[in-house]
Prior knowledge:
CATH class of the largest domain in chain A: Alpha Beta
Number of domains of chain B: 1
Subcellular location (chain B): Cell inner membrane; Membrane
Number of helices of chain A: 25
Enzyme class (chain B): transferase
Protein name (chain B): Peptidoglycan glycosyltransferase MrdB
Structural class of chain A: alpha+beta
Largest sheet of chain B: 3 strands, antiparallel
Organism (chain B): Szabonella alba
Shape of chain A: elongated
Oligomer: heterodimer
Strand order of the largest sheet of chain B: 1-2-3
Number of domains of chain A: 2
Number of strands of chain B: 3
CATH topology of the largest domain in chain A: Beta-lactamase
CATH architecture of the largest domain in chain A: 3-Layer(aba) Sandwich
Distance between the termini of chain B: 12 Å
Helix content of chain A: 25-40%
Helix content of chain B: 55-70%
Strand content of chain A: 15-25%
Order of helices and strands of chain B: HHHHHEEEHHHHHHHHHH
CATH superfamily of the largest domain in chain A: DD-peptidase/beta-lactamase superfamily
Number of strands of chain A: 21
Number of helices of chain B: 15
Family (chain B): Belongs to the SEDS family. MrdB/RodA subfamily.
Shape of chain B: globular
Amino acid sequence: MRRSARDTDESARHITRRALFMGGSMAAVAAILGARMRHMQVDQADQFRLLAEDNRISIRLIPPARGLIQDRNGKLIAGNEQNFRVVISREDAGDVEDVLEKLTEFLPISAEDQDRALKEAQRRSPLPIIVADRLSWEDVSKVAINAPALPGVTPEFGLSRIYPRDADFAHVVGYVGPVSENDLAKLETPDPLLQTPKFQIGKIGVETWMESDLRGRAGNRRVEVNVLGRIMRELSRQEGDAGADIRLTIDADVQNYAQARLGDESAAGIVMDVQTGDLVAIASAPSFDPNLFVRGISHRDYNALMENDHRPLANKSVQGAYPPGSTFKMVTALAALEAGVITASTSVNCPGHYEVGGRRFHCWRRGGHGRVSLERSLAESCDVYYYDIALKVGIDKIAEMGRKLGLGMRHDIPMSAITEGLMPNHAWKQERYNEVWRIGDTVNASIGQGYVLTSPLQLAVMTARLATGREIVPRLIHAIDGQVQPIPEATDLGLTPSHLRAVQEGMFAVHNTQRGTAYSTRIEERTMRVAGKTGTSQVRNISAAERARGVISNDQLPWNRRDHALYVGYAPHDAPRYAVSVVVEHGGGGGTAAAPIGRDLLLRALHDGIPPASAYPASQRNRIDAMHRDLNLRDPDSGTPGTSRA
Amino acid sequence: MSFLEYRLKTAPTGARKILHLNWALVLLLAAIASVGFLMLYSVAGGRIEVWSEPQMKRFAAGLVVMFFIAFVPIWFWRNMAGLAYALSLLLLLGVEFFGTVGMGAQRWIEIGPLRLQPSELTKITLVMLLAAYYDWLDIKKTSRPLWVLIPVALILLPVALVMGQPDLGTALLLLGGGAVVMFCAGVHWLYFAVVAGLGGGGVAAVLTSRGTEWQLLKDYQYRRIDTFLDPSQDPLGAGYHISQAKIALGSGGWTGRGFMQGTQSRLNFLPEKHTDFIFTTLAEEFGFIGGISLLILYVLVLAFCIASAIQNKDRFASLVTLGIAATFFFYFAVNMLMVMGLAPVVGVPLPLVSYGGSSMLVLLAAFGIAQSAHVHRPR
């Protein structure tokens, strides 16, 4: 449009004014922008820098190698093996399902594992998905070679627990397993290590009780991660400390012998050094392979273990509580001697039964033993003798003596579910059943029946204390991280030496007199002669009607109603070195089922090898030789001693 | 007046026009684009072919377009304004029906190999049409209500279409650019005061109505406002982008972490790191010095345009130059406010720096018109 010069000038003036105003406004906004930039980048720089570091740096834990468990000579009991596994990183894989399908061409992955991996892939987590665990080197190599066809798939290495002596130590050492919700809930401030995937902690036995020593300290590495949490590079690395190696007091070869000697019986056996309290073998049969649990036991295997009536999962040596039967008689005798109600030469007439409070209690020998001394009462295990002296001394003194000798109390060794047993007295029955203690209860308790319950561990401690007269305490940990653990000074029990000797002589007579209940399981070598005591404890009541028909022999009963066979002993009798206790569940007579095992364990420990035939009575040598040939023993040199972690 | 202009007092013709171009402005634009090439090279992890090289090619093509437009006399562009506006409206309608959905909104239309974003084009054509309108209008009628309503309608028409895509950022830029042309043309300031007042009142009403029975927005829309006001409330959701952008920007410090050393962008913590949020990478790697330098370059572009507009006696030429300057201003101001957490995330690129063809071409074409106005000004 044509304008006059005046209009044009006016327009220009207007525009100039407005343009300058607008320019000013824009400059103001620009100034605000500049000021804001300065505020954020200069004044708040440190704070934002920190946030950026937080973003980019992630601290990852390096799991430490778990401490080894070795026997007293350094033979490996629990070690670590390289574990190869294959993981998929979501970010690189893209379609996880597709990659997984390709992977199954190279690896045997069960449908169950595939489902689990796919489920894990749904979750938004930066951690790689573990698709296959415990692969062989060949499998891992196959994956590595085919890596180009498998985006996001990488082989990984980790350490996993292995028990090279499989079933031998399952009950002592226990096993490890992945951390469960339950484990975490139990801890107030869980070690962050526990959250790392596939981390293993002790579940039972020494593995769990010595967890704090075995676990070690995690190292860490600072890594730079991208927004998806994938590691781009490592910035720094601080190695952790491997867990402390632990040496047990157990001799792996004696343990192996004990475990093999118990065989298929449902039984427990303990060998203990009577001077130091060192537990040289703690066997419980049947056993199981702890490696099954580490790898994740199948339902079938687990059910088989659960349904077995010999209870392989139960650690009978410390968990089992059995009526001690006649092995308890030393306690009753010592209590009576110390109380002064009898002397070493007191004798009692045994007509085969004992009447008290209107009830008749029988001796195991229907016809009776006639006049029996203390020595004979032990050797031939006369019951009436003990009924008589127990009523004289009373249950409270007997129970006190039992505790003194290590019964009815929990011995503190790092194993699981250790039983306290039961050492009853007046107060206990009043409290437990709100009933008065009866004379009949004392009669039953005097021969280790009724309420009295003991574990094989307690019986071994009792035997060691009887052998030495000192307060021997069981000991399982020999050394931690090379530091030999101190052996506590065993104080004297304060028993009158002549009383103790009288009981010891009775125990010697059990093996070494013709009529002793364990005469057939004597040791021929003069230097190693053994003192002991057999026991047969009833697991059922014998009714009067049954008794009238004549007591049925064990062989005719179903297995689970037969008597428990027990044995305790120590050798050499004149300079004691080892004590043993053996319980064979439903084994029948202590002299026939338990004592032979006890003698073999003692000889094995004393000889530090398979005992020579000369140790045995001449008539038994062929049989013993055959038995030893048939024992399925581990080659004593197979366990690699020392430091190998593989 | 430059040395060249002093020597050539008369209106230039033919190839001599090249001497009359606003070369300072060209150099400024090239400098800004170069910052873009550098940052695109950096966010691509040191690879030029990913974003930097295509961007260079586009810039070169844009320069050719700019020179071409600059050589055509400004009166031609004034006469084309109506047609250009009508064409861009048609294209906007075309997007509505045939457009390609990208990033959750319909923005592109594909014509052969060309991928066009008509909303970008509308930014100049609207400014051109309004400038032409005020050039045609009798100055005395400028503030009469009827003659104010016409440009308002001309602005709201494309704004409504763009909002429907939905593209809030472009709508804001159109409103801003149009309003500035009206303001500079001399429309009475009371109109602006009233609109500003209504706008402020509206915001106040929206915010106070929350939780009452006459609540004006949906709950989720309020939550977006909350996120904008305090991104740390929702650090992994909607607030994530803005939190990460602020971290990148803030962690730059005075001099930055160094070229290609920005951890936020290199490790992908930054969203849209090569487009809308590229400024944060610049700020992270070159710090306050780098950020403020780019801001100064932008302000200089504005200053040169405003100076050129004031010198120009032609009403259309002045107004169109100011409108282009204003559009350019809104581009970088909204983008920077957004990445610094002072404005909600609306999706406006950083002009000439962010990766993207449409806005680069359209901006250079716009500066071509400003150059034409400068070259063909009455002397």
